[in-house]
Amino acid sequence: MTAHGLIRTDLALEAREALLKEARREVAGIETSGRTTAHTRVTRVKVTSEAGARRLGKPPGTYITIEAPELRQGSRVVASEVAEVLTAELGALAGLPEKAGILVIGLGNWNATPDALGPRVVDSVMVTRHLFEYAPQELKGGLRSVAALAPGVLGLTGIETEEIVKGVVQHIRPDLVVAIDALAARSLERVCTTVQLSDSGIHPGSGVGNKRLGLTAESLGTRVIAVGVPTVVHATTLASDALDLMLGTLSRADGGGAKLAEAFTPAERQKLVQELLPNHWEDLFITPKEIDALIADTARVLASGLNAALHPRVTAAEGERYLQ
Amino acid sequence: MTAHGLIRTDLALEAREALLKEARREVAGIETSGRTTAHTRVTRVKVTSEAGARRLGKPPGTYITIEAPELRQGSRVVASEVAEVLTAELGALAGLPEKAGILVIGLGNWNATPDALGPRVVDSVMVTRHLFEYAPQELKGGLRSVAALAPGVLGLTGIETEEIVKGVVQHIRPDLVVAIDALAARSLERVCTTVQLSDSGIHPGSGVGNKRLGLTAESLGTRVIAVGVPTVVHATTLASDALDLMLGTLSRADGGGAKLAEAFTPAERQKLVQELLPNHWEDLFITPKEIDALIADTARVLASGLNAALHPRVTAAEGERYLQ
Amino acid sequence: MTAHGLIRTDLALEAREALLKEARREVAGIETSGRTTAHTRVTRVKVTSEAGARRLGKPPGTYITIEAPELRQGSRVVASEVAEVLTAELGALAGLPEKAGILVIGLGNWNATPDALGPRVVDSVMVTRHLFEYAPQELKGGLRSVAALAPGVLGLTGIETEEIVKGVVQHIRPDLVVAIDALAARSLERVCTTVQLSDSGIHPGSGVGNKRLGLTAESLGTRVIAVGVPTVVHATTLASDALDLMLGTLSRADGGGAKLAEAFTPAERQKLVQELLPNHWEDLFITPKEIDALIADTARVLASGLNAALHPRVTAAEGERYLQ
Amino acid sequence: MTAHGLIRTDLALEAREALLKEARREVAGIETSGRTTAHTRVTRVKVTSEAGARRLGKPPGTYITIEAPELRQGSRVVASEVAEVLTAELGALAGLPEKAGILVIGLGNWNATPDALGPRVVDSVMVTRHLFEYAPQELKGGLRSVAALAPGVLGLTGIETEEIVKGVVQHIRPDLVVAIDALAARSLERVCTTVQLSDSGIHPGSGVGNKRLGLTAESLGTRVIAVGVPTVVHATTLASDALDLMLGTLSRADGGGAKLAEAFTPAERQKLVQELLPNHWEDLFITPKEIDALIADTARVLASGLNAALHPRVTAAEGERYLQ
Questions:
Q1: Burial (0-12, 13-18, 19+ Cβ within 10 Å), A214
Q2: Using an 8 Å Cβ cutoff, are D232 and D286 in contact?
Q3: ipTM beyond 0.95?
Q4: Shortest Cα–Cα distance, B206 to chain D (Å)
Q5: Please, which of A86, C206, D140, D176 could form a disulfide with A305 given CB 3.0 to 4.6 Å?
Q6: How far apart are alpha carbons B146 and B151 in whole angstroms?
Q7: Nearest residue, CB atoms, B256 vs list C113, C246, C255
Q8: Tens digits of per-residue pLDDT, B217-263?
C-alpha cells in the first residue's frame, strides 16, 4: 500500500489518503462523496473499476466510513448519533425487503480483547429467527428473521471460519450475511472512533487476527456486508512512522540531510523496522490502556445500530434495550 | 419414567434403578456389568433390544456410568483418577484408529452456568486439526486431528444446534463426533459426581436446556459418542420426592393413613406438584451454591480425560497441561 | 420465622405476611403503608418497637419493598419504572445533603452467579470520589462523592467482609454506606422481581451466602442503607412447602385425613425435610434456568436507580448511561 | 532513566543495563550476582547505598530477576521450573517463620487485560486465613495463614489502593505483604518471560497503570515483597528505539550523517516522539496479540510458585492443584 510496504490498513479511507498523497491527484475508478452530522463525518468511497481496485488495494465495491473522534470520550450523545448514522447507512447499503432473513457473523477471537469485537456484537444482536417459526403474525410486524453466530478462529476450533459459515449458510439460506470484524488502522486516532461498512465482503489477510478466510458473495452464494472498526495499530506502523518522521526532519535540514534521507530506500527502511521488532512475535499491536472498555462501548454502538437497521420496528435508541 | 411422570433423568443408570424398583426383577434386553477403581464405580448398561429400550426410555446402545462421590470435595487425586477412567472407557467405546479425525461438540448455553459445561470443556480441548495441514510428520505421531466447537443454543443464535453441527460435519467429515452435555439427574448426590458415556447419541429433550435437537449417527452420518454429567436436579423432582416421602410415611401409619396414601393417584400427585411451582417458570433447577466452581472443576476433569483419549501421546495427567 | 423453622426469608414483607397469617391480626410495633405506580407496588413496613422486632424477626427500622412482577419478562419500560421508584424511595430514606460522601458496598461472591448481584452493581456505579480532589467546581454541581467496593466473601479472601469494610470506612469516612446484597426469598415469584430497601443495616445470617457479618450504624459508625433483591429460594423452603400442601390437602379430606395431618408436629416435618435433602450440601438453591441473565438485568436496574439517587444531576434514565 | 527520559522500565535489571551502557563500568553501591537453572537465569541486583539507588532510579533493596525466554512458548516444563525457582527465591527473600501470616495483594485493573495480572493471581492463591480460626491443629501443619485481596484501581473504586490496603493491614496485621503487579518493560522480549522480586516495596509511578500509590514497610508498618512481571512495553519506548536505531545507522554513515545524528539533542528526540503519539492518549501499550492467554499462563505460574512458597506443605507442582 505504501512505499515501504510495512504499513497495513483495513480502511479504504486511509488507503485512499495514502494513494492521494502519492499520486497527488484523484485516481480514475475511485469516486468519493461525503456528508456530515453533528458529531460524525460520513465518507463514501466507491471503487468502480478493476484499475481503481488495484491501485487502492481494495476490491471493487462501496466503502462507507463513519468518523466520530469524540466517540472515544464515552459520550452517550455521540454514541447514539453514531448508532443512528450506522442504521441509516447500513439500511441504504443493504436495501433489504421486509421479509429478508439475515445472518450476522461475529468474526474474531473472543479470548483476545482487541479481536473480540465481532463476538461481543453478536452477544447483543436481537436474534429472532427461531421465533418466526412459532410466533403469531402480529409479533412479526417490523421484525426480520435474524440469526447470529460467532464462529471463533482457527486456533480455537481447528476449523477454518469459512467452513463453519458456509455450512450454516447452506442450511439456513439467509438473504444477507452481515460480518462484523475488528480492523487494523494506520493511525491511532482511528482506534474505536471509525466504522467502515462495505459491500465487497471480507477478504483474506484483513482484520486484526490476519484471517485467512474470505467471506464474499462468490464464496457464500449470498450478499455480504462487512462492518468493521479499527481496534489496533500494528507496531510496524508506528516504527515505520518514526523512521518517516526522522527522514522528513532530515529532508528539511540543509546540506547532507536531504541527501541522506533520500539514500534510505524502501528496502532499507523495512530492514530497520524488522530490526526493531522481535521477528518471532508476529503480531504486535499498539492499543490504548483502556482497550477493554473501548471494545465494550463500541460493541454496544454497533449492536444498537444493527438492531435498528435489521428490525424496522426498532429504533437505534431501542436497539440498545436488547443489549446486556 | 416413574409412576407420576414428573421425575426426569438423563442417566440410564437412574432409569434402570427406577425400572428395577418398579419391575422388581431384571428386565429382558437390558444387560448390566461393572467394575470399581480406588475412588470410582463403573457401570455398563447395555440396551440390546427395542423392548428393553422402550421399558428404559433410552434408545439401544451402551451406557457407561462413572460414579465418584468424592469428586465434589475437590480432591485432585480423585479428579485424576476419574480422568484416567474416562480416558480408558472412552477409548474402549470409541475404538479409534490412529488416523481418525474427531469433532468435539460442546452443547449448552455458555451464559447459563449449569448448562455451560459443554462450552467450558471445548475451551480446554487440545485442538490440532489446523496443525495437521502444515505440521511435519514427526509432530503428528501420537496426536489425532481434533476440531472443537460450541454451537450455542437456539435462544442465542436463532439456529438449531443440529443445523450448525450438520453443516460443519458435512464440511470437515470427522470419523467421530464427541458431544459433551450437561444433564439433569434424579438425585442431588449425582450433581457433578457422575459421568455418563454412551454411543447412542444425543436425543431431543435431553440435557439441562431441554434441547430439541438430535445428534445421532442417523442425523449426522457419522458415529456419535455422548459424554454427559448431571449438573442440576429439576425442582419438580424435589417436589415430587417430598410428596412421595410423605405418602410413604402415611402408608406405614396404621388405619386411615395407608388408605389415604393409596387414594392419591399419579394424576393427583402431578396436580399437587404443579400447584407448588409457578407454571410460567418452565425450568426451575436445584443447584448447590458452589455450582460455578463445580462446573469449572468438572470441565477440567472431562477435558483432561478427553485429551488423553483422543491423543494417544498424551496421558490423562498431561491432558491437563493444555487446560487454562 | 414459620412454625417449623425451615423457611428462611430476608424480606420483611414476607416475614410480616407469615406473621399476619399466624397472628390473624395486625401486630403492635409494626406499621404498614403503601402506594402503587403503573407497574409496581411499594410497601413500607416500619418496625417501631423491640417487641415488634422480636415478633417479626427483623430489627427496628424502615423496610421498603418495591414489587414488580413484570420485571422478570425483561420489559425495559418496567425496568425504567422500577429504577425511578428506587431513586425516589432511596432518596427519601437516605435524605442526603448535597455534599454527602457515599460508599457503595457490593456484598457477595462474584464467582457464584446468584450471589454476584452486589459486585455486579458496583461494576456499574458511577464512581466520582477520586475526581472530587481535582475537578473544577462547576463539574461537581449535581454530583456527590461516591466510592464503591466489592469486598468479596470470606472463602475468597480469608478476611471477614466486615474487617475490609471497616478498614475502608475508617479511612474515607463516608456519610452513608449503601450495601447491596442478594437475598433469599420465601417464594419463587419474588426472585428478581422485588427490591427491599432498609435503614437497619445488614445483619449476620442474612443474604444468599449466609454471611456472618454485620454492617450496621453501630459496627461502622456511619449510617447504613441495605438494598437487597431475592435471587434464590432455599431448597428447604420448597420441600417444606410440598409437605404443607400435602397436609393441607389431607386436612380438607374427610375422616382420618384431618386427624393425620394434625399428627405431624413441626419437629416431624423438619425431620422429613432433612430426609429429602443431602445433609452435607449446606446450601441448595432453587433458581430459574435464566438466572445469569436475570442477575445482569437486575444489576442494571439497581445501578441506574442508585446512580440517579446518589447524583442529583443524573436521572434514572441517564443513570443507565454509565452502565456497561 | 535514559538519556532522553522517554523510556520507562520497572525492572532493576534493565535499569542497570542502561546504566552500565552509559557509565561503561560497574557502579558503586550496586552489587550483582547470578545463577542459572536448566531454563532460567536468576540475577540478583543489590542496591546497597543511596548513591547507587539514585543512579539506578530504584530504592535500596534486593531485586531478583528470573528470566525464562521459553516461557512464552507455553511449555509446561519451563512453567514448572519457573514456579519452582520462584518458590525458592521468594522463600529465601521472605525468610518466613512457620507461624507467619501473609496478605497477598493483587494490584491492577481487572478490566484491562495487561494490568489484570495481580487480580488473576489472587484468584488462584490458596487462601487459608479463615480456616485457621476453626481448623483442628493437624490440618494446619505445613500451611500458613494466607489472606488475599485485589483492591482494584482508583478509577474503579474512587479509593486510593493504598487506603484500602492500609485499612485491611491495620485490621488483620499480617507479618508480610506480598504485592503482585504488572510491569512495563524496556524490551518486548521480556513481556511475560521475566519475573522480578524485590523487598523494597511498591513505589508511586511504577506498574502498568501508573499507580500513584506506595506500598512500603514505612507506609504499611509491615514488610512488603513485590512480585512483578512485565506485560507491556510503552509505545514511547518503541518510538524512541526507532529514532535511536535510525540515528545509530546515520552515525555509522560517512560524511554529514554522523554530524547530523549528533545534532539531535535529547530534547529534540523527545519532541519527535511526542509528534508520533497522540498526546491525549496517555497510555499506549505495545502487546502481543495473544496477551490474554499470556496473562492467564503467567498468573498460573506465579500462583503455583506463591502457593508453594507460602505453604511449606505444598510443592510448586501441587501449588497448581489449587488453581482454576
A1: middle
A2: yes
A3: no
A4: 29
A5: A86
A6: 16
A7: C255
A8: 999 999 999 999 999 888 888 877 777 777 777 777 655 666 666 66
Cβ within 8 Å, pair D321-B293: no
| Partners of residue D131 in chain B, C-beta under 8 Å | none
Under a CB-based contact definition with an 8 Å cutoff, are residues D160 and D213 in contact? yes
Q: Which residues contact D51 (CB under 8 A, 6 or more apart)?
A: D28, D29
User: How far is D109 from chain C, CA to nearest CA, in Å?
Assistant: 12
Q: How far apart are CA A280 and CA D288, in angstroms?
A: 11
> How many CB atoms neighbour CB B2 within 10 A?
18
Residue D139 in grid coordinates = 490440618
Q: Tell me the three-class secondary structure of D172-191, residue by residue.
A: HCCCEEEEEEEEEECCHHHC
DSSP per-residue letters across D297-318: HHHHHHHHHHHHHH-TTS-HHH
- Contact (Cβ atoms closer than 8 angstroms) between residue B253 and residue C260: yes
Write down which chains contact chain D via at least 3 CB pairs under 8 A.
A, B, C
Interface residues of chain A, partner chain D, Cβ below 8 Å: 111-115, 188-189, 208-209, 235, 238-239, 241-243, 245-247, 249-250, 253, 255-257, 259-260, 272-273, 275-278, 281-293
Q: Among partner residues C245, C260, C290, which is closest to B257 by beta-carbon distance?
A: C260
Q: How many residues does chain C have?
A: 324
Chain A residue numbers with beta carbons less than 8 Å from the beta carbon of C296 are 324
How far is residue A166 from each of residues A8, A173, A215, B129, measured CA to CA in Å? 28, 10, 9, 18
pLDDT by 10-residue block (mean), chain A, 324 residues: 53 86 79 95 95 89 95 85 96 92 95 92 92 64 91 90 92 96 89 95 74 83 96 84 76 64 73 71 78 91 95 72 46
Chain C residues in contact with B287 by the CB 8 A cut-off are: 284-285, 287
Q: Do D324 and B293 touch (CB under 8 A)?
A: yes
Cell matching residue D55: 543512579
Rounded-to-integer distance, Cα D319 and Cα D300, Å = 9
Of C188, C242, C283, the CB nearest to B284: C188
Expressed in percent and rounded to 5, the helix, strand and coil fractions of chain D are 45, 20, 35
Write the pLDDT tens digit of every residue in C71-117.
Answer: 988 777 899 999 999 999 999 999 998 889 999 999 999 988 899 99
Q: What mean pLDDT do residues D128-149 have?
A: 78
Average pLDDT of every residue of chain D? 84
Task: Determine, for residues B287 and C282 on separate chains, whether the beta-carbon distance falls below 8 Å.
Answer: no
Q: Find cell 426469598 and name the residue.
A: C185
Chains interfacing with B (3 or more CB pairs < 8 Å): A, C, D
pLDDT, residue D4, reads: 37
What phi, psi does B59 have (nearest 5°)?
Answer: -65, 160
Closest partner residue to A293 among D111, D245, D284, by Cβ? D111
Q: Are B260 and C257 in contact (CB under 8 A)?
A: yes
Q: Residue D41: which region, alpha, beta or left (left: phi > 0; alpha: psi -120 to 50)?
A: beta
The residues, any chain, with a CB within 8 Å of residue B244's CB and separated by 6 or more, are none
CA distances from B116 to A193, B153, C112, C113, C260 (A): 34, 11, 14, 13, 45
The residue of chain B nearest to residue C260, with distances taken between CA atoms, is: B257
Residue whose grid cell is 495441514: B133
Residue pairs between chains B and C whose CB atoms are closer than 8 Å: 123
Residue with cell 410497601: C43
Three-state secondary structure string covering B101-155: EEEEEECCCCCCHHHCHHHHHHHHCCCCHHHHCCCCHHHHCCCCEEEEECCCCHH
Q: How many residues does chain A have?
A: 324
Cα gap D149→A287, rounded to integer Å: 28
